[in-house]
Amino acid sequence: MQLSELQNKHKDEVIFIVGAGPSVDKIDVDLLKDYTVMAVNSGVVAAQFADYFVSDDPAIMSWSYFRSLEELDCVCLFFRDRWRDVDVEFLPTGRVVFYSHKSWFSPPSTYNLPDGLILTKDIKEPIIGSRTSTGSCVHLAYCMGAKVIVLLGNDCKLDKNGKRYFWQYNKKSFQPTRIKGHAFNDRTQNMGFGRDAFVEYWTKFAEVNADIIGKDVEIIDCSDSGLGCFPEMHLQEILDKYGDRKK
User: Fold this and answer.
1) CB atoms within 10 A of CB 176
2) Domains and CATH numbers, the chain
3) Segments in the chain below pLDDT 70
């Protein structure tokens, strides 16, 4: 599959983006099976029926769920600059698609580089600069023609019990394990996890796309995020309002 084939492929649909935040454990993901679903990183553990898998980060190779992609049917979208030299030959060629990014952030203090966070419609062009793979997913969904984009598990924080992922609660389904690198435990799960950076990212994203969000596309927060920059709705409310926008 070529990236260009995804342009407007899901025009006027609602697209659900499933992340891995603890709030995913509180929803019935199976309700999404009739809709277009994009899974971000270990969100695919919850939504193994997802149509698409998106990741900016080759570090996910350190987790057992990465190899499980071979057994699924999703199209895998990877950030080219970081994945170009990574061995993904275990995945069928037709299921691997690469995208590129614009830049929006230059450490340590330069933010909002020109056009770095502005949503554009041509999927062949670089998408927004990203602090999180969910940001990449949102822009790809927009290019695919989504009229409504729903964020699930985009919690951007540890929950009140100090957990980062939904599967730390859900013991009935496959629980990912770290197969190399730092052992995953209560101490290491917070490494590199900067809540303020995520909140800042989404706040700036909403600001620079204020003329697009709510007009060309709706972005709904169905996560326990507390971001405040997108309308918040419960999953059943979303299905009641947009339930006819199936794939």
Assistant:
1) 21
2) 3-242 (3.90.1480)
3) 106-114, 171-173, 181-195
